[in-house]
Amino acid sequence: MKNKHYILLVAVCIAFVTTANAQRYKIQNGIGLQGGVTQFDILTDNFETKTNSGFIGGMAASVDLPHRWYNVSYNIQLSQNHIDISALESGSIMEEYVEYKMFTANISFLFHIKLIRNNLTLDIGPILQYNSDFELIDESYEGYTIKGYNNLLTEDITQISNFNANGAVGLSLGVRRLYLRAQYIYGFTNILGGLNNQDLDIGNNAKFKGNQSLMAFTAIITF
């Protein structure tokens, strides 16, 4: 009988402590809308490129963990990124930068390390990306030769790899429901790998290899 009373007392104490901790550490979930601008480039030895701007927007589901040194969030983002690649018109020695665009859809899981509570965080995490092929902004540049090649044309390099894995690191600064975020995204996979699957006349040039490099500056409103 005493053992039953002892077990009952322990159960009540555990329930009390669990309830008290739950009240002390209230986990909060939030939904956010985000939008901003991007600066996109590809780090490669195959082409001479120049960074160009684009835009980004999406949604975020955040989990605030008061008893931890970090928070977490799930993010879905859509963006349109632009890049300039050097090319020459047939029979000309004058170089021109030809502009391409690329649409992307990203899913990311980020850890937000609290530097100053929730007001300043270091953000880091993986990103899975689907992106479209390159598309020439101005079709009048079709037939231009990519710099460094004899027979590689601007329209030949559009079919890049469509699935990529990236890593993100950045900082978020804000109060209450408004945050500003600066984020650098690096591509771990070869975004130009799709070009190696095509029968392109590139002479003795090496295989195509490139890693995307993107800066995103966004504002986030949470609810």
- The secondary structure category is mainly beta
Number of distinct beta strands:
10
Residues in β-strands, percent: over 45%
Order of helices and strands: HEEEEEEEEEE
Our count of domains comes out at 1
**CA-based gyration radius:** 25 Å
CATH class categorisation: Mainly Beta
CATH architecture: Beta Barrel
Fold-level CATH name: Porin
How does this model look, in words?
The protein is mainly beta. It has a single domain (28-222), classed as Beta Barrel (Porin). 10% of the residues lie in helices and 57% in strands. The protein contains 1 helix and 10 strands, in the order H-E-E-E-E-E-E-E-E-E-E. The chain has one helix spanning 2-24, and strands at residues 28-44, 49-64, 70-88, 95-116, 120-131, 135-136, 145-146, 163-175, 178-187, 210-222. It has an 8-stranded antiparallel barrel with strand order 1-2-3-4-5-8-9-10. A hairpin with a 4-residue loop joins strand 1 and strand 2 (49-64). The longest helix is centred in the N-terminal third of the chain and has 23 residues, at 2-24.
Question: Any key phrases for this structure?
Answer:
single chain; mainly beta; 10 strands; elongated
Short structural summary:
The chain is mainly beta. Helices cover 10% and strands 57% of the residues.
Question: Topology of this protein?
Answer:
Layout: H1 2-24, E1 28-44, E2 49-64, E3 70-88, E4 95-116, E5 120-131, E6 135-136, E7 145-146, E8 163-175, E9 178-187, E10 210-222
Antiparallel strand pairs: 1-2, 1-10, 2-3, 3-4, 3-7, 4-5, 4-6, 5-8, 8-9, 9-10
